[in-house]
Design goal:
four-stranded mixed sheet, 8% helix
Amino acid sequence: MVIPTLYALPTAAALGALPTIGTVVAADPVLAGATQAPRQLPQFSGVLTSDPNIGKSKYDGLSVSVNRRFAQHFGATAAYTWSRTFDNSFNELFTSSLNPRRSQDAGEFFTNGLDLSHDYSRSIADIPNRFVASAVYEVPFKSSNSLLNAVIGGWEITGIFQAQSGQLVDFQSGIDSNRNGDNAGDRVLFNASGNRNVGTGVVGLTLVNGVVTQVAVGSSPNTAVRAYLAINPNAAWVQAGFFAKGIANGGAGLAPRNVYRTRRWNNTDMDFIKNTRFGREGRYNFQIAAEAHDVFNQREITVAGVGAGARSFVEPNATQFLDYSKGVFGGRTITLRGKFIF
């Protein structure tokens, strides 16, 4: 038996008909009344680390490119890639909190042990659409006037434009919802009728003297809790409480892994280069350049600016959930450089 998550406050009679967490854990043969799965080999706690080769991944892609060879002072290339990437594990070195380094099933095993098939989904590396174009143009100016040649001639303009789909992130409860001793991969509930850009936490519901009473979820289960109540019933992403119903059957009621794609982005960079050649056959070249990144000062608001360590960005009960404003986003930068080629 598991603890349901409700979207409207129940009556005392309806809540009283549900079992408490205490009843649920008492009936579980593994927990035997405890609210934390017992360690199978406690003598090896924190001693052994295993990285078995049980991961699975699949990549399909199609790439198209067009190239204009440099002629008449102009050259350009453009490439588009469509792809899809699936896997059941990623980030084993814990480089990002936005995508857990361990499966939801990691930790102490309740039934059949670690089953990564429940985590097979689109990968964090899945970028369905990516387009890149670049060009170089030499200003075709030549004059018999050496001063004009020195000032106006020798200019070269290059640019690169990139656009791609956003990164996938994994919504997390932030607590050890399934009580297997590991909260790294515990995902959230999905409310299909809710707003997919809104998340919410939950409160526990219990009976005190016959009255429905709300209690905080806390960091460990309250054995008197009979159900959870979504604080915002209009949210699509709902924190999974301890022993929440969605965890049953391999997490069939939870949101899939890497379920949400963050904002797509595009960027334009350009170089403005001035070549001043002199000496026999232009052997020497004094080159100055301005490198402009994010030429149009778009200040792309993406998950990259939020930062890989901002786990609260993917926790529906956190105030920073899907809030890009907490990130750091750079704008246009211009770098000047000089070089003497001989």
